[in-house]
Amino acid sequence: MKHCVELSSICKSFNKIKVINDISLEIPEGKIIGFIGPNGSGKSTLINIICGLISIDGGSGSCMGFDISLEQAKIKSSIGYMTQNFTLWESLTVIENLKFIGTIRGVSDVDNKVELLMIRLGLDRFKNTLARHLSGGWKQKLSLACAIVHSPKMLFLDEPTASVDPLSRKEFWNLIYELSAQGMTILIVTHAIDEIEKCDRLFYMNKGDLLFAGSLSQLLQSHSLTTILVKGESFDEFFTEMLRVKKIQIVHRDKWLSVTGYLNIEELKIKYPDLVIEIITTPLESVLYNLSCH
Ligand SMILES: Nc1ncnc2c1ncn2[C@@H]1O[C@H](COP(=O)(O)OP(=O)(O)OP(=O)(O)O)[C@@H](O)[C@H]1O
């Protein structure tokens, strides 16, 4: 499998505070990659490093085959970048925004390419509308169009759906799948559980460390957390005991209880023989919560 990003022992500090701590990783080509982790864990900083936007203090790396410390201009011309702020020229129309960015990006036959892109993303019906008059969802699509007008091989999306409605999010993800099917590598920063579940590969960061790299199923299996559903006669007694146990998550719903933690099921079965204890897949939220406690 070819890699479009390779990082080796990357370190970065701001004002003597370590923000990226000895991170090495490889990103396979053509996949949808999720960068996840709590606020302030270093996701955006690492992405900016990969894109050649900020310098590193130690380590080495490449993006699209170009050195992140020496060939920043080449990296910038071969990638697309979209942030949650949808950086658009508000007083230009949709078509003017696209042609402007396309021209800056050195796109040949820009008029034709912009027309095709607008049709592909459904933006053609708003081509003469000022960007500031677009709804949040359409601003997001225009921002995506601007990020891919030069047909990059890799696209970076930093929380692109944080401020749009569920339907726009769904449509946005259909476009992501379409771009991915055409061979584009997509790296997305997100906090949304449903979006994390859509990624082919995940990188979980916490306090500047890379704590996990792998698929969703590997992430779910990587923690020996257990989730059980419990119901039965001694339910109240069991519930009271669970409330006293530290580091477990409890969801109480009328006649049943869901408990996630490092549980000794055999012991519980002996202590509460009448309870029906069903082991279910640990929810992703629980695994992420557990990782963030490291
Ligand atoms: N230019 C900067 N100067 C000083 N500190 C910075 C700078 N950029 C980021 N930081 C600090 O680096 C740490 C990591 O920030 P970063 O934005 O990379 O995290 P993040 O995981 O992307 O967070 P979020 O999910 O909130 O966007 C934070 O403590 C942040 O305050």
Automatic annotation (TrEMBL):
Looking at the record, the residues that make up the ABC transporter domain are 5-232
One Pfam family per UniProt: ABC_tran
Q: Which GO terms describe its molecular function?
A: ATP binding
Q: Which domain of life is it from?
A: Bacteria
Keywords of the record: ATP-binding, Nucleotide-binding
Similarity comment:
Belongs to the ABC transporter superfamily. Drug exporter-2 (TC 3.A.1.117) family.
- Identify this protein by name: ABC transporter ATP-binding protein
